[in-house]
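Hi R.,

Here's the input for the flavin-adenine dinucleotide complex you asked about:
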Amino acid sequence: MAEIAYNIKTNRTFNFIRRWAWLITVIVALGGQFWPYLGLVVPLIILALLITSFLKGRYWCGNFCPHGSLYDQIILPISRNDKIPEILKSKPFVALAFIFFGFNMGRRFLAVFQQTEGLLARTGFIFSNTYLMVLVVGGLLGVIFSPRSWCQFCPMGTMQLFSYKLGKTFGITSTTDQLITAESPDLCHSCANCSRVCPMQLEPHKSFQENNNQFENEKCIRCNTCVENCPSGILQLATPTEADSIEEAADLTGFEKSRYYQAKISKIKEFANPDIKEFTFSLLEPNSMEFIPGQFMLVKVDDQREMFKAYTISGSDAAKNQVSVTIKKIEDGYGTNLIFDNFQEGQRVTLKGPMGRELAIDKSQEKMLFLANGIGITPFTSIVENLFARPGVRLKAAGGTNIEARKIEENYNGEATLLYGARYEEDLIYDDFFATIAQENNNFAYDRVLSRPRGDDYKQGYVTHILEELEVDPETVVYICGSRPMAQDAIEILENKGVPKEQINYEDFGV
Ligand SMILES: Cc1cc2nc3c(=O)[nH]c(=O)nc-3n(C[C@H](O)[C@H](O)[C@H](O)COP(=O)(O)OP(=O)(O)OC[C@H]3O[C@@H](n4cnc5c(N)ncnc54)[C@H](O)[C@@H]3O)c2cc1C
Ligand code: SF4
Ligand code: SF4
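And here is the predicted structure with flavin-adenine dinucleotide in place:
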């Protein structure tokens, strides 16, 4: 497969200092060559980082460091953002860099202190020269490898580590040091986004997989990038003393039954659009998954990186020992490219599920409205099947899944409407299935629309256009899945129609 980037370039500067502190680096490093006194700001910086690290580990590096700001703000856009070589992270290299740096600085200071004249200017010059060296070497490494390559062995980082260990020994850090904390490991999708955006290329997701709700790693610079980019919104910075109460308060509804499964890919179904495929898994151990329609599961896509991807369960057989997901390939998507290139019938995979509560339908509702666009249609296949399907209907209508439609014990007697928007005709998946169910059930209405139809068979527009024209009872419970702009517009239209926000449920796929 074409090389798809694992590490994600994303905004890492969330406050004024991190956005602009790089100017200090440039002023001290370059300005100091002409007015060396500028270098005297560096000892103050060293003092400040020693104090913060005593209390909060390498917090300085991720929040105040002028070089860090330069790497994240200026170097990141031009960096290859590739893997940092292991050697730069290795203990011997870190020790060597520290000794070399200490020896070199010591030697230069000795030379300065042997003469009394111009002591301050000479001292400032040493510091500003050092700042310049870090700018040049760190900047080059940042462009060639990854912006924070220098930070792996930075002698200031090593000094902070010593100071941090001291703070830990005195028992200070348990109330001052904030670590990356997951609300609960059970809510984690194992999607590795936290690791893919991490400037230090750490792997918090593996720690959550081991059931820890705090990520303890002395190299963590507490930069908040993973917090800002976790699609599940379950991360925060918290002290070790706060971590337990955070986990206790976590709402695990919809996640309680989740567990790992060994499975085999039993069928891969293709659609008119080659970028969409339905994968059916036979569950081996354990051999059935009790899920509520609308829930999702995790599919392991990368063994080495322990990376999973979340996919809605789009169908199952009667005994629930086969489950299927329908996946859209994203052009530069890491996981979907692995799936489309490597997944083959007969192959073993690890799954985890079921999970999720947003679209887990409540059958006691008398009126339901489902809104989907793009690949956001997937939850509604199993939802509609569960509410209305007659045995075999999906097999016949969807023409090709190997999953036999389930016999439902109890028909749904309320009313449900599905509005579905896609771009082109070939993107409209499971259309025959929904249309057949609508024909056979007076209490199910189905309408769809294309934003760029190639022919005249379908109406042109967005799903929100048909929503605008629809009469909606304010008692209706709404389930939305699709793009963020569609969901935002739909929620506004629904609120204008009198549907309270509490009755509107939205699942964000993040794509
Ligand atoms: C609950 C749930 C259910 C889902 N159900 C389905 C489903 O049924 N079918 C389906 O096809 N998909 C579904 N998804 C989406 C799916 O989990 C994957 O996100 C999707 O398949 C893309 O994965 P990827 O690894 O190919 O893309 P990625 O590599 O993760 O991302 C694609 C692109 O976005 C960029 N990007 C990603 N994150 C960031 C970021 N933080 N900042 C900047 N750029 C970023 C990447 O660089 C890349 O260019 C679901 C998601 C969730 C959360
Ligand atoms: S980014 Fe993904 S792997 Fe990391 S904590 Fe959030 S859900 Fe879990
Ligand atoms: S784990 Fe999170 S807070 Fe720590 S360095 Fe990585 S992205 Fe920053």
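One thing worth noting: Confidence is low (pLDDT under 50) at residues 397-407.

Cheers,
M.
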